[in-house]
Amino acid sequence: MIAISTSELKDLINLIYKKTGIKFEEKKLYFISKRIEKRMEKKGCTSVREY
């Protein structure tokens, strides 16, 4: 299973905000990280950078 570090997750969340204007609350970070990890696995990505 792929694990996203807190730093990588915050970078992804900032990127999502810059591209879409969607801002996630701190209490949703766990939920968001699990969704991203699941998506990365489906796409066959082995790192956040690759994703």
Q: How would you describe the overall organization of this protein?
A:
By secondary structure, the chain is mainly α. About 60% of the residues lie in helices and about 0% in strands. It has two helices and no strands. The protein has helices at about 5-20, 30-45. It is globular and about 25 Å long.
Notable traits:
globular; 51 residues; mainly alpha; 59% helix; 2 helices
In short:
The chain has helices at residues 6-20, 29-43. With 51 residues, it is mainly α.
Strand composition percent: under 5%
Number of strands: 0
**String of helices and strands:** HH
Q: What is the averaged pLDDT score?
A: 90
- Helical run tally: 2
Report the major sheet: none
Roughly what percent helix? 55-70%
Output the radius of gyration: 11 Å
**Cα separation of the termini:** 14 Å
